[in-house]
Amino acid sequence: MVLRLSEKETDMEDKLSASISYLQKLGPEYINQVFESSRWIFEQDRDMAFQIFTSVNVELPRTQVTDCLNKIDPALSARHIEYLIAEKEEASPAFHDRLAELYLNMTLSARKGGDEAKQSEVYSKLLRFINTADHYLPDRLYGLLPENLYEARAVLLGRMGRHDHTLELHVYKLRDYVKAEEHCKRTYNPNTVARSIFLTLLKLYLRPTDKTAPNLLQPALDLISRHSPRLDTIETLQLLPPLVTACDVRSFLQEALRAPIFDSHVVRDIHKARNEQVARKLMLLETRRFRVTDSRICPQCHKRLGTSVIAVHAPRGEVTHYQCRDAFARALNDPTR
To answer: Start-end of the CHCR repeats (predicted)?
Structure first.
């Protein structure tokens, strides 16, 4: 019947339109006929053929239509589910799970076939879907993912509340520190356990669990400068390595000092860090040696040093008589000198 209708038309678009119009009027009792007759239309023009299953007058069983289209091309099946979700407000987890799985299988198929453009396109759809949809089961999809789809794994782990593992993937596998920070911003809640999410990320930077991780001090300092109000002051100071100076975390310290209650432990840790810096400078100075000969002249009084008690001046290491040290130090610090 469908072919006879199309034979009356000479223009291909008119032929297809007549057949599509006829099939759109057939109800569920003729579903097998619709499937069989739609195949040749799909061979001619997929976009036009797809209209058969988007009729506003008659709706065919959704699952059977999805199965039929999947046999023709999984991309058509995915398109049909996209239509159901967008236009028919389909909220069944079965359809949402199936769409995510179709995106995944198409991504892997394109990768296997070496089609990088197709892989990128479909993988982007998968990432967008699992980031925004609410009716699929993350743990089910996670079990289907291969190991090396790190970004998809990170999204699903976050959906399952395993935020520490999400951040590990962003930091150690993807090395995408911006997305790690964005995940923290989406997750942070001062009234739940998620209030420590920024501290978790800071620990991953400064106490790496991956031995192959690069030096992550700079991302750590950037995180501290941007999100100091969301970081526990005591724990942050305890995490910082000794070589970090007060200047490196100035904004963080200023923010902490403005807090209504500034814990004495913070003051203690600041003094400790300062003392460690001074100790390192002293140790460096103590390792330097200076040779004093009979002919060496004191730059202050211009007399020979001889066997007198001497003083060494930082930072360049000038050597003077001990009794000349104060005068020489004043001269060094004189800006007009």
So the answer is: 53-210
CA 79 to CA 33: how far, in whole Å?
22
Report CA-CA distances (Å) from 160 to 4, 186, 211. Answer: 55, 14, 26
Q: Is the pLDDT of residue 262 over 90?
A: no
Q: Distance between CA atoms of 136 and 7, rounded to whole angstroms?
A: 45
Strand 310-313 relative to strand 318-321: parallel, antiparallel, unpaired?
antiparallel
pLDDT at 335 (0 to 100): 65
CA-based nearest residue to 219, from 157, 174, 187: 174
Q: Taken in order 208, 214, 215, 221, is the CA torsion positive or negative?
A: negative
d(CA 240, CA 233): 11
CB 160 within 8 A of CB 139: yes
3-state percent breakdown (helix, strand, coil) of the chain, nearest 5 = 65, 5, 30
DSSP 138-152: HHHHHTTS-TT-HHH
44, 163, 203, 213, 238 from 235: Cα distances, Å: 66, 19, 10, 22, 5
DSSP 52-88: GGG-SS----HHHHHHHHHHH-HHHHHHHHHHHHHHS
CA-wise closest residue to 165 among 157, 175, 176? 157
**Structure token digits, residue 285:** 């100075």
Q: What is the longest distance spanned by two Cα atoms in the chain?
A: 121
